[in-house]
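Duplicate of #3305? Posting structure anyway:
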């Protein structure tokens, strides 16, 4: 794992790697809002293979739309599964 900060020769701590702001997105609207408000990445789940039975989750088409939207803003999308 790479450190996100280093100590300079002068003894000062400087950030060398920006942390990633990763948020959950239970549906397409939340994905878009999260990215608009500055999320670097979102994680989503499909309608199948999830443990949250009451969650909206994403259809394949919604996943496609969400990934295309995220790509426009340079954000990442992680897909979670439970099997």
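Output from current build:
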């Amino acid at each position: 794992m790479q450190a996100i900060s280093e100590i300079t020769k002068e003894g000062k701590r400087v950030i060398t790697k920006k942390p990633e702001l990763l948020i959950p997105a239970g549906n397409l609207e939340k994905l878009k809002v999260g990215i608009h408000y500055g999320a670097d990445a979102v994680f989503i789940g499909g309608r199948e293979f999830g443990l949250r039975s009451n969650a909206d989750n994403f259809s394949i088409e919604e996943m496609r739309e969400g990934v295309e939207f995220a790509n426009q803003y340079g954000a990442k999308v992680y897909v979670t599964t439970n099997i």
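Confirmed duplicate; merging threads. The helical segments are 28-36, 60-72. The chain has a mean pLDDT of 88.
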